[in-house]
Amino acid sequence: MGKGIVLREGKDVTIVANGLCVAASLEAAEKLAADGIDAKVINIHTIKPLDEDLIVTAAKETGKVVTVEEHSVIGGLGGAVCECLSEKAPVPVKRIGVNDVFGESGPAVALLEKYGLDAEGIYKQVKEFV
Questions:
Q1: Residue 1 has pLDDT above 90, yes or no
Q2: Whole-prediction pTM
Q3: Would you state the pLDDT for residue 63?
Q4: The domain that contains 105 carries what CATH number?
Q5: DSSP letter at 2?
Q6: Contact between residue 84 and residue 55 where contact means Cβ atoms under 8 Å apart
């Protein structure tokens, strides 16, 4: 409980994901590798307690962090990671999630695609960030 899992090693950027976005982040990391971007992928399955040691170590190793969650970017994984890193390892962070909008209903696949939370959307946003 409270320990993240490194699913893929990388040196250029760290992708911290949870829930449904973990598999999509791994797929995006493979696409990024084909473009010469080596992404570390970490599954953070609990936000509280947050595995701060793992996140800080990864941030220091790669110098950039992207969080991915099928949740609002406010008050979730991205916010927790930003709070942690602002004090312990200030590096550039990009939060990928649902922006501050009213939620919609629909098929999960369509909503993930709409909000850029599918593998292609994650790939594009990470590539642009790096």
A1: no
A2: 0.95
A3: 98
A4: 3.40.50.920
A5: -
A6: yes
